């Protein structure tokens, strides 16, 4: 066999070099041979000002946000307590007083 590392996605041993990248022919995954095969780092979530957010933080909404499927609006200056960070496009899971459970984007809040 080859001296190349196994694919980090499907663990296939049939990987090969293609220019600067390693390629897996079974799942078509490409990766650099300089980067580690797997990283267990947690993503860093930042607010609109660039301050890092963590679970349990209190944030303030910086823009009026329309609630999808409803005529209500989350007003600018609304404080949201005890946020939970999740993966995805809307990366904050929280409860907004008077509205209920919802998901927010971190780019529309600032750390209180």
Automatic annotation (TrEMBL):
Record organism: Idiomarina seosinensis
SUPFAM superfamilies, A to Z: Prokaryotic SH3-related domain (SSF82057), Zinc beta-ribbon (SSF57783)
Pfam families named among the record's database cross-references: YjdM, Zn_Ribbon_YjdM
Highest rank taxon of the organism: Bacteria
Domain Protein YjdM N-terminal, chain residue ranges per copy: 4-32
Record protein name field: Alkylphosphonate utilization protein
Segments forming domain Protein YjdM C-terminal: 46-112
Family of the protein in this entry: Belongs to the YjdM family.
């Amino acid at each position: 066999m080859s001296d190349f590392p196994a694919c980090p996605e499907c663990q296939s041993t049939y990987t090969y070099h293609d220019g600067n990248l390693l390629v897996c022919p079974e799942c078509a995954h490409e990766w650099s041979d300089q980067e580690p095969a797997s990283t267990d780092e947690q993503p860093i979530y930042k607010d609109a000002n660039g301050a890092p957010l963590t679970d349990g933080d209190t944030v303030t909404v910086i823009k009026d946000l329309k609630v999808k499927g409803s005529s209500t609006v989350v007003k600018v200056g609304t404080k949201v307590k005890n946020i939970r960070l999740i993966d995805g496009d809307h990366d904050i899971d929280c409860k907004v007083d008077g509205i209920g459970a919802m998901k927010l984007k971190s780019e529309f809040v600032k750390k209180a």
